[in-house]
Design goal:
HDIG_dom, 228 residues, HD/PDEase_dom, globular, Hypothetical protein af1432, HD_GYP_dom, HD domain-containing protein
């Protein structure tokens, strides 16, 4: 049996890790594990690679995009830490969604989609039970809201959505598009940026999209410079 663990890393951020363990108590999930508040969920060994690849690694990449975007947006250190910490845990609720729904390759049924759409609120609730700061849980809870009001779980729109959640939404979507998912192939960087621009003002905050896209173009220009 594997465990999805909630850990404090050396750099002061809370992250998720998957670890194996052995107990000679003939495991049927006893109190020793269920009472451990750092264990998010128990994971079958054969499913651990899926969680690592599509949840934990995705969160780490999204956090890096958030770090870069925070620099361009000139966020102060406090806002930057809130944004990065939120990104590192934004999909913790997916660990609380049934594996057969999370890992489904085909389209989700309406019922399955509704269950999947609970992951932001489930993750925020799990963190609040551990006295996690509200400024972080609020970002996690609302990162799938859309500026046009058609998002989930609450249908918030525009400035009803916390600013840092709107930043996270762009970075989250960018990594999701540029990385291969279990249910669809990845898109090229240009295709992902075009999709962000297409959804600016609808799914995403337009100003944040403009900043994010400009950041990519500027970084590409820097990489192409030849130092003599």
């Amino acid at each position: 049996m594997e465990f999805a663990l909630f850990v404090l890393d050396y750099d002061g951020y809370y992250k998720l890790e998957i670890a194996g363990g052995y107990c000679d108590g003939n495991c049927s999930v006893c109190r020793k594990c269920t009472n451990n508040r750092n264990i998010v969920t128990l994971i079958k060994e054969e499913n651990a690679e899926f969680y690592q690849k599509y949840v934990l690694d995705h969160q780490a990449r999204t956090a890096e995009l958030c770090r870069r975007t925070a620099e361009v947006l000139s966020l102060d250190e406090g806002e930057k830490r809130i944004l990065i910490q939120s990104a590192l845990l934004h999909d913790v609720g997916k660990l609380l969604i049934p594996y057969n729904i999370l890992s489904k390759n085909g389209p989700l049924s309406p019922f399955e989609r509704r269950i999947m759409e609970l992951h932001p609120s489930k993750g925020a609730e799990w963190l609040r039970e551990r006295d996690f700061p509200e400024e972080i849980t609020a970002v996690i809870e609302t990162h799938h809201e859309r500026v046009d009001g058609s998002g989930y779980p609450y249908g918030l729109k525009e400035d009803e959505i916390p600013f840092l959640a709107r930043v996270l939404a762009v970075c989250d979507a960018a990594d999701a598009m540029m990385s291969r998912r279990h249910y669809k192939p990845h898109r090229s960087i240009n295709e992902a940026l075009d999709e962000l621009k297409k959804e600016a003002g609808k799914q995403f905050d337009e100003a944040i999209v403009i900043t994010f896209v400009e950041m990519w173009y500027n970084e590409v220009k820097e990489e192409k410079k030849v130092v003599v």
